[in-house]
Write a sequence for this structure.
């Protein structure tokens, strides 16, 4: 292959860097959504590639549901500090206390309640753009979303009224109160993300690797036993060797039995996988259009 | 390290029942890129709506309205890989009113797959899709003649359709065209060779996608570097960074070497590339479409929207533009209308000074002086812009020859534009006396 040709990761990387720089140049108050998960870890590396040696021009924003894996938050804080970035955390708990997010009776999941919390944070800091790590290969509704995804003053996504995206020219114009969600990893697959993590030798939270954990079987998934999710009567608690493939809340993230201890192990496992990444997330299984509905309301 | 794998982007186009979604489903299925939960979801929806038949199209039609109406609303992107290449597929809807989606999907494609129903042969939409592929300068074209099973795998039918295409292909700008007889529903010649076409000696569709030469699809002739963002760390603690001033951007054409002379446009000032900087360290040479940060030997006033160019092949520079546009919104384009125009890394104001023609995409003929361009029309227009653009003809460079129009107020993207070649290039001695 000639030296004037990029391999697939090189192509995805230059596309993403271009998008990040467009955001820095065209928006007044952009932020970057950083959870500590594998996709946003890649985003941070891409931000370094786009902006060093200067400081990163965006603060990091994370919505803490209160149901996060502790390992994830610890990693998030450490990585943000390493990069010298400003980390803003807004908690669903506080949003509930302030009446911004209102749980329905008996609602345990914090999934839906993240949405008003996020929108309130965007309003609080007057962010006009939020860079996120969503990928189109995750889910069918995401497959139809553009790199620059316009949100109206209510934070809503309208799939029928998207701005056509042609060549590498992005239309980032928004009116006051509106904002843009920008997804530089749109064209990346789960495999690309891990290949990039390997190539860049990036650190990831320990829960992506194999460890022992007490789990119960519910709805065809192994869910971790915690204070938030105690075993029900007659439910058998198993001590398993597991890891997470995608990280959601600790009460809804299915653990996969896996001996994968290294990035290479993970890559081999994904290559042989017979279910998609989101197949381990209970929040996406609630209906064929589950993701579409959440996105319309302003989900990540 | 894993071996270096190339990425090929292609789009599929065809009219409503040509089987586009089925073809993509088939490519994913036969190349083993479908997962169990996706199959399960397919089977679930087959039981609900398909009378037990698995419908491969359900894989791509992701939004609820689409599943309900059995149509594809927007461009959907799909990803799959084989040991030889990774692929990004843009599934672009075939409805007449969705030309804009096809233009969107085509703008970044290396290759277009135009699907034709073997029973129907070349219809209006086949001509249209082929024309649009040519207009957007997609480097490679595959005409997939689908539903061959329904014409009894008849070679003469295949040749007849091929001839119909060959009668108008010379009028277009596509150099690389391949014809493949397939059945997307049954998988013949999609991934595996078909036992029904002993008369066809070419590759399967996937075989072609895996091997077609794409390394030359980027323009490597004539250095173009639209400055995107000025990198100024301004770190008083660090002597090296205190005065650091880098020009960040994505190379939009050609190559650049350390020590190379460049001109900054529109100022015309010249300088030398002192360094090519990336996070991964310095480079001696970089090429399109890499993203880099350049340092010049002279301290020039350069900012976003300026363009660095090589001195060998110079671009055009003008505030009067001649372009083909695809109009993408219900309010028609008329003379005198004002828009924002975004070209490479700058946004300027633009007024439409003339509507020269509307292209009839069925006959490929230009109808002179239309009163307006309606949604999905393609036409040639003239524009006057508030600041001269530094540009190339779209046929020479897709990145420096393209633009979008944005409607003030709504901020909607209302047109995709392709610039016709400039009347003359910037003169190399331009502004020399000013230094």
């Amino acid at each position: 292959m000639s030296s004037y040709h990029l391999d697939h990761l090189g192509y995805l990387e230059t596309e993403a860097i271009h998008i990040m720089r467009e955001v820095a140049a065209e928006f007044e108050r952009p932020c970057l959504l950083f959870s500590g998960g594998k996709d946003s870890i890649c985003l941070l590396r891409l931000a370094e590639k786009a902006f060093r040696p200067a400081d990163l021009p965006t603060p990091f924003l994370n919505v803490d549901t209160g149901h996060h894996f502790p390992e994830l938050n610890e990693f998030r804080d450490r990585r943000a500090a390493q990069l010298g970035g400003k980390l803003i955390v807004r908690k669903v708990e506080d949003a509930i206390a302030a009446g911004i997010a209102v749980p329905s009776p008996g609602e345990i999941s914090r999934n839906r309640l993240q949405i008003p919390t996020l929108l309130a944070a965007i309003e609080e800091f007057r962010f006009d753009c939020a860079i996120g790590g969503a990928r189109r290969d995750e889910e069918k509704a995401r497959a139809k979303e553009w790199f620059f995804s316009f949100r109206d003053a209510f934070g809503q996504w309208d799939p029928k009224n998207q701005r056509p995206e042609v060549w590498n020219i992005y239309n980032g114009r928004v009116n006051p109160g509106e904002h843009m969600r920008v997804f530089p990893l749109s064209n990346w697959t789960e495999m690309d993300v891990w290949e990039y993590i390997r190539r860049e030798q990036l650190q990831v939270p320990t829960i992506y690797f194999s460890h022992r954990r007490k789990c119960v079987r519910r709805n065809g998934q192994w869910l971790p036993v915690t204070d938030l999710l105690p075993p029900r009567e007659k439910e058998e608690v198993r001590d398993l060797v597991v890891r997470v493939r995608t990280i959601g809340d600790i009460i809804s993230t299915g653990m996969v039995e896996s001996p994968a201890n290294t990035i290479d192990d993970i890559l081999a496992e994904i290559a042989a996988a017979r279910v998609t990444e989101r197949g381990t997330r209970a929040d996406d299984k609630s209906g064929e259009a589950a993701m579409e509905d959440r996105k319309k309301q302003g989900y990540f | 390290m894993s071996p270096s794998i190339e990425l090929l982007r292609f789009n599929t186009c065809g009219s409503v029942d040509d089987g586009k979604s089925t073809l993509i489903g088939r490519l994913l299925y036969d190349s083993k890129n479908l997962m169990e939960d996706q199959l399960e979801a397919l089977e679930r929806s087959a039981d609900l709506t398909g009378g037990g038949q698995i419908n491969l199209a359900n894989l791509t039609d992701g939004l609820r309205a689409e599943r309900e109406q059995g149509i594809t609303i927007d461009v959907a992107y799909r990803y799959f890989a084989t040991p030889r290449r990774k692929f990004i597929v843009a599934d672009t809807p075939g409805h007449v009113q969705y030309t804009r989606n096809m233009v969107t999907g085509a703008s970044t494609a290396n290759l277009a797959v135009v699907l034709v129903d073997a029973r129907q042969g070349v219809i209006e939409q086949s001509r249209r899709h082929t024309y649009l592929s040519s207009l957007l300068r997609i480097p490679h074209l595959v005409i997939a003649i689908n539903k061959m099973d329904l014409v009894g795998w008849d070679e003469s039918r295949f040749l007849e359709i091929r001839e119909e295409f060959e009668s108008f292909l010379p009028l277009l700008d596509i150099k690389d065209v391949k014809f493949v007889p397939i059945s997307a529903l049954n998988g013949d010649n999609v991934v595996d060779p078909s036992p029904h076409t002993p008369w066809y000696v070419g590759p399967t569709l996937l075989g072609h996608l895996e091997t077609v030469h794409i390394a030359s699809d980027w323009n490597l002739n004539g250095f173009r570097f639209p400055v995107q963002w000025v990198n100024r760390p301004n770190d008083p603690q660090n002597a090296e960074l205190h005065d650091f001033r880098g020009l960040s951007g994505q190379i939009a054409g050609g190559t650049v070497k350390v020590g190379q002379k460049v001109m900054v446009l529109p100022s015309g000032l010249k300088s030398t590339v002192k360094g090519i900087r990336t996070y991964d360290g310095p480079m001696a040479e970089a090429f399109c479409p890499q993203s880099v940060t350049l340092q010049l030997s002279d301290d020039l006033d350069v900012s976003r929207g300026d363009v660095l160019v090589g001195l060998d092949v110079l671009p055009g520079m003008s505030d009067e533009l001649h372009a083909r546009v695809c109009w993408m919104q219900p309010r028609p384009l008329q003379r005198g209308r004002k828009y924002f125009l975004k070209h490479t890394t700058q946004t300027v104001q633009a007024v439409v000074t003339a509507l020269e023609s509307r292209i009839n995409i069925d006959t490929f003929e230009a109808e002179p002086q239309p009163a307006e361009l309606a949604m999905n029309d393609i036409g040639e227009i003239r524009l006057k812009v508030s600041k001269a653009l530094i540009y190339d003809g779209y046929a020479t460079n897709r990145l420096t020859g393209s633009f979008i129009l944005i409607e003030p107020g709504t901020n909607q993207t209302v047109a995709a534009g392709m610039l016709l070649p400039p009347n003359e290039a910037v003169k190399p001695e331009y502004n020399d006396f000013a230094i």
The helical segments of chain B are 20-30, 36-49, 64-69, 99-107, 124-135, 155-168, 205-211, 239-242. The CA atoms of residues 128 and 314 of chain B lie 34 Å apart. The mean pLDDT of chain B is 88.
